[in-house]
Structure formats: structure tokens, C-alpha cells
Amino acid sequence: MESTEEFHKKYEKEICSLLFQYLQERGHSESAKTFQKESGLEIEGVALQNFKQLVTDGNFDEAIKLIPELEDDCMKAAQIKIALYEHKYLELLQKGSNCEAIEVLRTQIVPSSKLGTQNIVQQNRIVDLTSMVMDVEKTSKALFPYNSTGESARSNLFSYLENFISPIKMRSQSKRDNGQERAEERNNGAPSTDKVSTLLKISQNNLLENLLQTSLNYQISQCKCYGYDKEESQYSLLEYHECNLNPPSKTLLTTISNHKDEIWYVSLSPDVSKLTSVSQDKMINVWGLERKENKLQIDLISCIEESHTNKNCEISCIQWHPDSTKFLVACDNIKVFNALTGECIKVIDGETSSIRSAAWVKEGEEIIFTEPEKGMRCVNANNTDIFYDWTGFTFIDIASVPNVDKFAYCSENQVGIISISSREKIKLLSVKKKIRAITMSKDGQSLLVSKHASEEENKAVIELWDINNDTKLQKFVGHTQEKFILSPIFGGKFEKYVVSGSENDKVYIWDKSTGDIVETLEGHQNVVNSIAWEDKLPNYLFSCSYDQTIKIWINSTDKVQAEIEPKYLCNEEEIDSQMNDDDSDQSMIENESELESEEIESDE
Amino acid sequence: MKIIEYIEADNKYKCLSCKAHLSAVDSVVSKEFKGSTGVAYLIEDVVNTFDGTSEERELMSGVHVVCDIFCVKCYSYVGWRYLKAYREDQKYKEGKFILERALLSKETS
User: Fold this and answer.
1) Which part of the chain is the Yippee domain (chain B) (predicted)?
2) At what angle do helices A60-70 and A74-95 cross, to 10 degrees?
């Protein structure tokens, strides 16, 4: 990094121009004038002012003489010259002096149309210009890139020409003018800050604010604590934030349960007012969440029974509608439930009786779902088919996010992307074998792919893929996944973290950019299979497990309490005794099978 | 949710009770085996099953170390697999699976 002195010398003119633009845009015209006077700036270069005057007066020939002073680049100078000649031609035609106009075309435009061997003006254009004689008004609109009719034609021409004059040339041009002045100043031991002489024209609006915003975003993205325990309002423009702190660890706030069997999924509604938990006991609980100062209030809103007929079918997926009032549950068919009342609003049947994955697309107007035995289908609110793909591809999982025009699908060996509006397959990613689940990031640019152990990797791995460039960005290891599907999620602000459950009873949190394990949360007593962490509720992480409980985790530095009816709070001892019951069931199955096998004889 | 694999072949055998894919018809090695329910097939590759306890058993072709296999989805018994064979001419069975035909449903497309 340069010292402040060097930085100031290099960018002095630009800094002053930015400040001037800021003052002007904010309406402080008096301050802007004073600033301009004190810093000795001129709003425009002298030569440019003269040029502007000549163009506005219509004195094109004189203006053309000034071009070499404005622009050094031959190509651009020639283009300015041509533009001026063409405008002169146009004005003559508009006046009605066709003969003079044609004279201009022959003697001035055509000779200047070539620079050495390069064509500045194409042959077609000369022909088009000639045809203008027949109908000036109509053709001029088509040929000139600015509005060349009416009162403001000449000032439009000037604005168009300004694009060809590079600001840096303006700076060096005036340096030449004032070069002598500066040399004298230096000899006389003048103050170290040179007097700038011309302000630069800034084409973007609010440039100062944009630059400061970019700097702040950079500081935030470098801070490891952002999204963990620091919120955006804690960063200030007045203080450059550089900390090497590690994010604080998470501790358990409370354990809640209302289920009598394994809990499979927890899912937060998009407006983070509700949490659903789905369990093997076929009950879906909807919990209401409310954050009050340093309390988190949790109420049980409704208990819904998901009654499916096929007892071998498991609830495979639960997805909230973007408006947070309803959600869909996929099992042997898709049922949409109202979150508050618990009534089943809609039932969508598939072709087979096992639906693996579903998602809302187009702001909740359509549902896309996959049936591994049949294919993939998209239906709209009236249950009519929008499209389907029954080509025999074994669709397993789909991932979509709101406001992004594509969704991802996967089979065990392949991941592909489809555009929602055009229904066409955009591309296939080069992800290889043993894919179990996919999750898309909120900006639609990257995809988390959860994979099983395969020949390449002996253990389960989660990979982060860039959708646009088809590259693997990062991989996350350490967790165990052998028998169950554990969907990973993005977590924290800017989706800085990747979180997944694991079959060794822990919650794993990785840093998305480095792939290192930030933390593992212990406390569950069985497989942790689903996590919910939304950045609208950034300090709370919800995890659920086969031990029939939902655990809520907060930062160890937060002073928060949970407010919930005591009957839903979990006692650690109770969980242990329930676990022992389950074990005895398992051993009974094994005993029966041994009896059977003694009777079997094999024959060749 | 349990991991259920899907076989990408036109003809496959599925678990009779829950229709989970078990094997492709092409990977059947021999159809001349016998189980408790009748005819059984010796198959190279089977998915969506888990093992019961392994034990030594006296079968018609000799003593082997076998373990029963069950469907991952519905836990029902579907057959067994060979872990170890003591006689040299039985070694080819090691690592392969037996599925009892009466407990399967065949899907052809």
C-alpha cells in the first residue's frame, strides 16, 4: 500500500472531482462553488469550452481546427471531424441548400473518410448520406446516433462528441498549458500539493458512495465474525475494520421435542416466523418463533398428521411456499398444508407412489417434483401439467431458490441445470458418482453436492460447485454419511458457512471459502440429519436428530433465553430410556431371521 | 431418510413388499438354487439390502459362512449371501448374493 502522501499526489485530481460531484449531487451548490474556488479547479478545460461554443454557434469549420488540441488519438480525432462534417451536411439539407450540401459531401466527407488505409466511414454510409437528399427528416433519424432535429440538435451533437474525448487527455492538455506555472512554483519552493487545474467529468452518478460501499463490503467479507455474531449495523465507515478474531463458538440454548419417534427434517419458513419438524411418527409440528429483545419465544401452532396409505413410504421432502403460509410434504403423493390451521389444501398425485423430491418455482405458482421410477414433472396451481420429463432418467433430487430462473436436478451420477422459463436443459455439470442430495445457494451461482463414499473418496464428501463455470470450488469432509441422506445447507450472512448433520451425532460447520471445519456441535445422541439456519434469524441454528429432539444453538457470547411451555422441553434422561426401547426392537428382528435361515437348504 | 439406490436397467427385480430395486435381471449368474420358498437365483450384484448376523451353515453343497439379507426399505427377508466357502469348487460363490424368486417382483419395460 502506498503512503498517504503518494496516494494523494497520484489521485489528487480524481479525489477532488469526486468530492465536487458529491457536493453538487447533494445540492450543496454554494459549498461546491467554494470548494471549486479554493482548490483552483476549473469545471472544464479552456479548449473544450471554446470548442463547445463553436459547435453551438454552428461554426463547424473553426471547431474542426480545434480538434488536435482536444484529442491526440488520430482515430478519435478523425471520427470527431467526420461527425462535425456530417452534421454540417445535415443542417444544409434541412435548410434546403441541396447544392451546398452535396458540395460538403464531395469535398469534405469523402476525402476524410479514409485514414491512411483504414475506413472511418463505410461505403454504405456514403450511399445512405447521399440518399438523404430525397427525404431528410426520415433518414436523419435512422442515420444519426443522437437526436439531430429540433432546437437542441447542436448540444446533442456536442454531448455525442464528448464521448470521443478522453478525460485523461484533458488532464495532460491542461498540464501543458500550466506546465510553466508549475515549474516556476517548484523553483520557488511552492507548497507540496500542486494546484490542480481541471476537474474531471465523471460519467457515473454517486461514484463516491459506490466506492465507499465497496470498501465496506470488502471489510465485512474479510471479517470472520460477520454472520456469526456481528450484524451489518455494527460496521462503520468511520473505522476501518480489521480483526483476526475467530467467530465465537455456538452453545446449546435449549432442547425441545414433541415427537414420539425420529425427527427427520426441520425447516424454517422464509420469513423465519415458523419452524416445521417432520417425524417418523407421521406428525408434522409447526412451531411459531418470535424474537423479543433477548428472548426467543417458541409456541406450538399446529400438529398435522400426514396420513399416507403406503406404509413403506417415508416422507422424503418438505418445502415452504415463498409466502410462508403453507408448505408441501412429499411422500407417496404431494400434500400442501396450511401452516396455521393444519388443513390439507391440495393433493397432487404422481404416476408412481413414491415421490422423492419437490420444490416450488416461479414464486410458488408451480411445483416441480421427481419420482425416481418415472421422471420429473411440473404442475401449476390448477393441477395442469406444465411440462414433464419421462425419458427414463432417474431423477433423485432437485434444488431451487426463489427469484432465480434456473433449478438443478440430479441422479446418482449426474447433475444438470434447467431454465425455469424456457424449460430447456442449460448444461450438465461434471460432478461424478454417488450423488445423494443437492442444495442451491440463494444467488443461484453455486451448488452444494453431497456425495457418498466412492472409489475416489473413501469417505462422504460435500462439494461446492460453481454453476456458471462448471468448476469445483471447494470440498468439505469430516462428517459421516453412510446409510442416510443428510442434506447440507448454506448458513450465515453472505452464506459464509456450509453446515451439515452427520451420522456420528454431531453438527458440522465449515467455512465456505477455505473448507476448514469451523466447529462441530455435540449434544445429540443419534444421527443429526437436518439443519435450519436462515440469515434473517442469524444467531439461531436449529438441528434435529433421530434422538427425537430439536436443539437450538446460539453463540456463546449471546445472552438469550428461550421461552417455551415446559412440557415441550426435553429432559436428557428421558431420551436415554427411549433409545433403549428402540434397540430392543432391532434385536428382535434379527432373532426371527435366524430361525428362518436354519430351515433353508441350498441346492445346485 | 434412508438412502435408496435406483438401478438404471430396463429389466430389474424388485422387493415384492415395497418395490425397492434389488438387482438387474442381467446380473443373474444361475437360476438353479433353492431357498425356503422355492427357486432362488445366484446374483452378482444386489443393492438396497443390509446384512443380518453371519454364521456357519450346512447347506446342500457343504458348509459355508453366510448371512441373511433384508430389504433396506421394508426390512423383509429377501435371501442370503455367501461370505466364505470352505470347499475349493464352491469358492466362486464368495461375495455373491442369493435372492429367493418368490420374494421378488420382476419389472420389464
Assistant:
1) 11-108
2) 170
What digits encode the pLDDT tens for the residues A252-266? 888 888 888 888 899
The cell for A585 is 426392537
Question: Is the Cα torsion angle A36, A41, A42, A43 positive or negative in sign?
Answer: negative
Q: Which three cell numbers stand for residue A407?
A: 433449478
* Residue B46 backbone dihedrals phi, psi, to 5 degrees: -130, 140
What is the rounded radius of gyration, in angstroms, for the C-alpha atoms of chain B?
13
Q: Convert B38-75 into a string of H (helix), E (strand) and C (coil).
A: EEEEEECCCCCEEEEEEEEEEECCEEEEEEEEEECCCC
How far is the alpha carbon of A531 from chain B, nearest alpha carbon, in Å? 14
Helix, strand, or coil (residue A407): strand
Distance CA A300, CA A297 (A): 10
Other beta carbons within 10 angstroms of residue A506's beta carbon come to 21
Looking at residue B22, what is its pLDDT?
93
Q: Which residues of A touch B19 (CB under 8 A)?
A: 312, 354
Kind of pairing between the strands at A385-389 and A118-119: unpaired
Complex ipTM over 0.90: no
A194 φ, ψ (degrees, to nearest 5): -65, 150
> What pLDDT, on the 0 to 100 scale, is given for residue A228?
61
A residues 151..190 contacting B (CB < 8 A): none
Burial zone of A421 (CB within 10 Å; 0-12 exposed, 13-18 middle, 19+ buried) = exposed
Are β-strands B77-85 and B97-100 bridged in parallel, bridged antiparallel, or unpaired? antiparallel
- DSSP strand pairing (A274-279 vs A263-268): antiparallel
At residue A283, the 3 state secondary structure works out as strand
- Give the whole-angstrom CA distance, residue A326 versus residue A381: 13
Calculate the alpha carbon distances from A249 to A228, A403, A477, A478, A542 in Å.
9, 33, 20, 18, 15
Record: contact B3-A484, CB cut-off 8 A: yes
Burial profile A370-403: b = 16 or more Cβ within 10 angstroms, e = fewer: bbbbbbbbbbeeeeeebeebeeebbbbbbbbbee
Q: Give the closest of A412, A452, A597 to B57, CB-based.
A: A597
CA distances from A571 to A98, A104, A281, A363, A416 (A): 98, 96, 20, 41, 45
Of A580, A568, A579, A478, residue with least CA distance to A526: A579
Question: Which residues in chain A have Cβ-Cβ distances shorter than 8 Å to B4?
Answer: 372
The string of pLDDT tens digits covering residues A209-218 is: 888 888 887 7
CA A178 to chain centre: 48
> Domain map of chain B by residue range?
11-108
Chain B contact for A436 (CB, 8 A cutoff): yes
Res A45 pLDDT > 90: no
Question: Which amino acid is located at A235 in the chain?
Answer: Y
What does the alpha-carbon distance between residue A283 and residue A260 come to, in Å, rounded to a whole number? Answer: 9
User: How does pLDDT run across A460-518, given as a tens digit for each residue?
Assistant: 899 999 988 888 889 899 898 888 888 899 987 778 889 999 999 999 999 888 888 88
CATH topology of domain B11-108: 2.170.150
- Residue from A363, A505, A356, A500 nearest B2 by CA: A356
Q: Read off the pLDDT of residues A442-453 as tens digits, 9 standing for 90 and up.
A: 888 899 999 887
pLDDT digits (tens, 9 = 90+) for A299-316: 888 888 887 777 777 888
Taking CB atoms and an 8 Å limit, are A601 and B34 in contact across chains? yes
Residue, of B9 and A200, whose pLDDT is higher: B9
Cα–Cα distance for residue pair A324/A439, rounded to 1 Å: 20
**Distance (Å, rounded) from C-alpha A64 to C-alpha A484?**
78
3-class DSSP assignment, residue A26: coil
Q: What is the pTM of this model?
A: 0.65
> Any residues with CB less than 8 A from the CB of A533 and at least 6 apart, and which?
A268, A489, A491, A492, A499, A540, A541, A542
Would you call A590 and B32 a contact, using CB atoms and an 8 Å cutoff?
Answer: no
